[in-house]
Write a structure and sequence with these properties.
Blueprint lengths: L5 H10 L10 H21 L5 H19 L6 H9 L4 H16 L15 H27 L14 H11 L1 H6 L10 H14 L6 H5 L2 H20 L1
Helix pairs in contact: 2-3, 2-4, 2-5, 5-9, 6-11, 7-9
Length: about 240
Amino acid sequence: MSWWDGSYWMRLVLDAAPVLPQPHWLPMLRQAGWALVLAALVTALMQCFDARWVRDKGRLLALASALWACIPGPWGLSYWLGLAFQTPSLMAIGLALLYLWCSVVQRRWPHSAQYLGPASSRQRSLAWQDRYAFFGIAMGWLLLFDVFAYLPWSLYAWGFHPLANSLFLLVALWPWIATGRVAALLQAPSKVLLPVLALFWVSRWPTGNLWDAVLDPWLFVGLHGYMLMRCRKREGT
């Protein structure tokens, strides 16, 4: 067998056991993930109100939701969310961290931002967000069809294949490939997707399947809500 025998190296990759987190760390990771997702969700809902006092109370409510999710056992909110939805995806956690950083730390409200012009970098960023959101929605519906065995192949099982990592790496580098500018990666959701892929390759968290790292039911529903808001904003303008 020669050094360049591709089938041999492919078998080495396919037969390698995925590196998973230690079992005793999983409850803590689940609690931290749900705490961040719930805090971002409550904060985003509070931004729908114009009153300043509602936003201030929303921060307290987001903090209370995060603390509630961190309580271990049946008294904690993450326990019941874990029974229904397991663990939030790495992508959902990364987007939650980014949203909390922008809205709470930097005090920039994504939903109330004023756009300066049709050629502004902010609008180019939002255009990439729309493309990524549409891609996530399409993949979510395909996975849903896969659950009910409407597809001739198993799309979810393909998440264990190394080629799935290559495809999502191309998706993460999509803005760079399309524009030819490395700075475009900092203006798109790829700045979250790239760290998510790197963390998944190292830890294989949470299940060893790439789909569970980049998409989950809550994120799937949230992408629909985001696209609905974008459509309403376009109709309003």
